[in-house]
Each structure stands twice: as structure tokens, then as C-alpha cells.
Design a protein that fits this description.
Length: about 325
């Protein structure tokens, strides 16, 4: 695909009477993605590429509809190629595949996205809490205690929620798989017809679909595995994720974000601590917004400052409410 893209770029240059010296260098986003791929594996990068190609393909198809030009196989070729790579890579986990297929929530298939969003949740929620208490007390008392309490309460809540989510999903899928096995044992003829119908609905000729289903049903274990994938849309690999791993990860990621606005209050008090907390939180919000551009491809500055704006707005509202409550109590 790299060679294909290079060929497209060279052809574009030639069409505009330019030589290859005008080819741009890799963008900052591309360099960061390459570094992340070397660090945690290129499975994740394939997912980002697939998301990007889907977006480009959708834009091209919409443009063709508006201009009433004929569609080309190349419009969606890269999406198909990447899907095939992901589907046929035996080393790739089911959890990673599930991310691209949008079927299930998973534990390990998207660590970087989870880290960014988990840190964002912790930072925004605890920053708002700290500013609310600071507004009520002018930053002089109780802010540090409230910040630590908010960190622990939020992180524990996130961890428990993630554990329940993963565990309940696993139990649901396991129950559905058991029911499918019982149906397979009690009514194999009906399951064979269902499987044949599934293949037929995918465009396979009726006679071939029936033969495929009949061949699969000769091996009960194989038939069960295929039925739960084709009929229920469940990948058994998704059940291997650890609910405890998900809970611990959520606790840590939330805590990392939540500790940022609290740090100044370990050493300072009053409005000086409030200002430093705000500056540190704004910087953290900008980094989170910039990190999100790895998934969206948008401008780093736009995403970063947008995140800062929304985060500061939330904190300002809670600070104002805290100030009103503080005045009311003191008065």
C-alpha cells in the first residue's frame, strides 16, 4: 500500500509538471503514529489507517454522488485491503478485530484511546470539583482533601463500572453460546438451514450455501464456533479479556488525569494554588486534545484549544457556583 500511495503522489506531481523533490516529508502526526507503532505494535496503526481510509472513501463517494460521476473500485479498495489484512492476520487478537468491526467493547484492542479518554475523564471531573471547592473556600481549606477524595471516588467508580461492563458482557456472550450449543445438539437440521440461509444472504449461490453448511455441520465443534460468529456475531476471543485488568487500567488512567489539578494544593494554598492548578490543568487538557488528533486527523491546535476551552468552561461554572455557596454560607 505504501508503494501504491507513493505511485499516486508521483502521478499527481507529474500531472502538475513537478518532480519528486516536491514530495512533502512525513507529517508530525505520521511520525508520532510511527513511534507509537514501534512502541506498542502496529496492529493499532492498522486500525487508525482503516478509520482514515473509511473517512476518505466516504468523502470520495459523496463527492461522486454530488458531481454525478461514475464510481471507481479504487474508491473503496484500500478499505477492503485493510479489512482483509486485519481479518486474515492470525496473530491478531479477537479484541483488536472487534474494535474495527464495531461489535463489542474490548479490553486490550485500543489501549491508547482508552488512556486518552480515561485521563480526560479524570482531569475534567476532578478539575471541576477542585475549582468548585476552591470557589467556596477561596482555596484555603478542604481543597486538597476534596481533590484526593474526588480522585479516589472517581477512579474506584470507573474501575467498578469497567469491571461490571466487561464481566456482564462476558457472561451474556457465554450464555448465548451455551444456548446455541443446546440448539445445535437438539435441532442440528434447523441450525444447518440457518447457516445455509446466512451464506445465501451473503450472496453465495443457494446450492453452494447448502453444501457449505452441510460440510460444516459434520464437525460439531467447528459448527458451534462458526454459528456463534455468523449467527450471534460473537468472537470467542473477546471473552478472554480480563475484567480485573480492565478495572485496574481504568483506575490508573482516571487517577493520572485526576491528580493534575490537585498537585499544587500539596504545596500551596489560596488563589496562588488555584491559578497554578488552572494552568497545569489547561496544559493537560491541551495535551489530551492534541492526542485525540491521532484518531481524528484534525488540527492539533484546534483540538487542543477546544479541549482547553470546554474544560475551563466547566471549571469556571463550578468555581462560580462554589463562590456563591461560600458567600451564602459565610453570610
Amino acid at each position: 500500500m505504501s508503494a501504491i500511495e507513493h505511485g499516486h503522489a508521483v502521478a499527481f506531481l507529474a500531472k502538475n509538471n513537478l518532480d519528486e523533490s516536491h514530495l512533502p516529508q512525513p507529517s508530525s502526526r505520521a511520525k508520532v503514529l510511527h513511534f507509537i507503532g514501534r512502541l506498542i505494535g502496529f496492529d493499532y496503526i492498522l486500525g487508525v489507517l482503516l478509520d482514515t481510509e473509511k473517512s476518505i472513501s466516504s468523502s470520495v463517494i459523496n463527492a461522486r454522488k454530488q458531481t454525478k460521476t461514475k464510481e471507481s473500485i479504487s474508491d473503496t479498495a484500500h478499505v477492503t485491503i485493510l479489512k482483509n489484512i486485519l481479518s486474515n492476520d492470525k496473530k491478531m487478537s479477537g479484541a483488536t478485530l472487534a474494535r474495527f468491526e464495531k461489535r463489542h467493547r474490548n479490553v486490550g484492542g485500543n489501549a491508547l484511546r482508552a488512556a486518552v479518554l480515561g485521563g480526560n475523564d479524570g482531569l475534567v471531573s476532578n478539575f471541576s470539583l477542585v475549582m468548585g471547592i476552591a470557589g467556596a473556600t477561596s482555596g484555603n481549606s478542604g481543597v486538597l482533601l476534596a481533590g484526593i477524595a474526588g480522585l479516589l471516588a472517581g477512579a474506584l467508580s470507573m474501575a467498578l463500572g469497567e469491571w461490571i461492563s466487561v464481566k456482564s458482557s462476558q457472561e451474556l456472550y457465554e450464555n448465548q453460546m451455551q444456548l446455541e450449543l443446546e440448539e445445535l445438539e437438539t435441532n442440528p437440521e434447523g441450525e444447518e438451514k440457518e447457516l445455509a440461509l446466512i451464506y445465501f444472504s451473503k450472496g453465495i449461490p443457494e446450492a453452494q450455501a447448502k453444501q457449505m453448511a452441510a460440510d460444516i455441520m459434520k464437525n460439531k465443534d467447528q459448527a458451534h464456533e462458526i454459528l456463534i460468529k455468523e449467527e450471534l456475531g460473537i468472537n470467542p476471543e473477546d471473552l478472554k479479556g480480563s475484567a480485573m485488568e480492565a478495572a485496574i487500567s481504568s483506575f490508573i488512567l482516571f487517577g493520572i488525569g485526576a491528580i493534575i489539578p490537585v498537585i499544587p494544593f500539596f504545596f500551596l494554598g489560596g488563589m496562588k494554588a488555584v491559578i497554578i492548578s488552572t494552568l497545569m490543568s489547561a496544559f493537560g487538557l491541551f495535551l489530551i486534545g492534541a492526542s485525540i488528533t491521532l484518531f481524528t486527523g484534525k488540527s492539533v491546535w484546534y483540538s487542543g484549544f477546544r479541549q482547553v476551552l470546554f474544560g475551563l468552561l466547566a471549571a469556571a461554572i463550578t468555581f462560580g457556583i462554589g463562590k456563591l455557596i461560600g458567600v451564602s454560607v459565610m453570610g
